[in-house]
Please model this.
Amino acid sequence: MLRKKLLWLASAILLFLAGNAVAADKSFTFGILMVGPYNDHGWSQAHHEAGQYIEKKIPGAKMIYIDKVNPADRPGVTIPQLVDDMVEKGAKFIVANSDDMKDGVREAAKMHPDVYFLHISGDDVMTGKAPKNLSNLMGKMEYGAMMAGFSAAMTTKTGKIGYLGPLVNEETRRLASACYLGAKYAWENVLKKNPKDLSFDVKWIGFWFNIPGVTADPTQVSQNFFSSGSDVVISGIDTTEALTVASQKRKEGKQAWAIPYDFKGACSSAPESCLGVPYYNWGPKMLYFAEMAMKGTWKQEWVWAGPDWANINNPETSTIGYAGGAALSPEASKALDKFTKDLGAGAVDLFKGPLNFQDGTVFLKDGEKAEDKKLWYMPQMLQGMTGQSSAK
Model:
């Protein structure tokens, strides 16, 4: 009887260990490096929630993350150092979520050939600089930016729209330009107003969010926009200062609206001032790459993912969305719905010539459509916009 009990106990232990081994085999640890706080109501929070989406979709998946990965918050700390820490903790797939991380994540990918990397907003695959374990992903936020510009132009009473920009590069130039084109289309084709009466002014703060003593203060820049006659401020930075200032102005009895950026829930802090928010939905595409990394079916790709035009707010299929704001009038909302439908059907193509750069040189000839690569490397903003096209 004792021998039988011992045999039963030994069998139970073996089954327990085997079960744990199977569970361990099914575990999948992945990491995300975020340029800002994980709860910034903007760019980094959108990535953090995408990581949570992966955890829900892949049994046994576990996210580890390091946020505030920028020179101000982590002076002297390199991307390879942070990646080493994640790899030691078992990460087999690592996402780097800022263009500023380009060189560092490429170096880290070369140092860890058995780990898979996804750089969001980079172009190393397109230029041939990426090792095989590194892919690139970006969303075609140009469409969301057009919707933001359209909403702003449908709302403004002064004809003056301010654009609160981060640092200056190809990405930020094309997004600001897309906002302008959306505003211009609404102003001229829907409202039938004189193009000369529309002002679209861009101010850059110097980074994706406020770094005291390093960047211009986005709160002060927003204040200046409203003080100089702009009644709508579109934000291209990761945080919601423009919306906060618009809310303050409304409490003072002034007409003021704002459009934040990046995160679907960004309007929640001041819905009475918010015309909507163009946002990224990283979950489905990040899941796509994570599953390839987990299954060993990795295929290097450069993906510039657009909206699901059947439903741009479908959380399972659309990389880009636009959440309508409570402050957008019913008439403007109806016009925006039609504009969105026309974009999806190709009936409206705003990156189609003739379009000139700020200095008057030709960007797109009459009838010419912007190919992805030409649009990706946009060297200037467009004629009709005011503000610097370079950091100089």
Observations:
- The chain has a mean pLDDT of 93.
- The domain at 28-139+282-305 is CATH 3.40.50.2300 (Rossmann fold).
